[in-house]
Amino acid sequence: MSYITLCKHKNIMEGELAAFSTDEGEVMLVWPDDGELKAFQGTCPHQDVPLWNTFNGRIITCQFHQWVFDGRTGKGLNPTGCELKQYPLRIEDGMVQVDLNAD
Predict the structure, then answer these.
(1) Which of 11, 22, 67, 86 is deepest in the core (most CB within 10 A)?
(2) Residue 82 and residue 91 in contact, taking contact as beta carbons nearer than 8 Å
(3) What are 40-99's pLDDT values in tens digits?
(4) What sign for the dihedral angle of Cα 82, 11, 33, 56?
(5) 0.85 exceeded by the pTM?
């Protein structure tokens, strides 16, 4: 596994989404209300457009075509049958790290 550091853990709070551009692609950290911090692909699977600032604490919405995803699982809610890729995430020395190359 090859983890990269995205940010300090204390810089993201419950109910927030933080988006990052990396050499390996777009990734977002999502911390759902009453849930756990997750790392998902940062683009909509519909047309590969960024999913920036589209989180209400529970769901992620593509601002371009209104596709909706569950912030806890990444599964498509509208339409169903699609989902966001989830990446392994860990906290090391207070830093959030993800593995974007995991299968």
Answers:
(1) 67
(2) no
(3) 999 999 888 888 668 999 999 998 889 999 999 999 999 999 999 999 999 999 999 999
(4) negative
(5) yes
Q: Is 85 helix (H, G, I), strand (E, B) or coil?
A: coil
Whole-number Å distance between alpha carbons of 52 and 55? 8
Structure tokens that stand for 39 in this block = 């790392």
**Tokens matching residue 15:** 């109910």
d(CA 37, CA 97): 11
Return the bridge partners of 25, or none: 22
Residue range 77-91, pLDDT digits in tens: 999 999 999 999 999
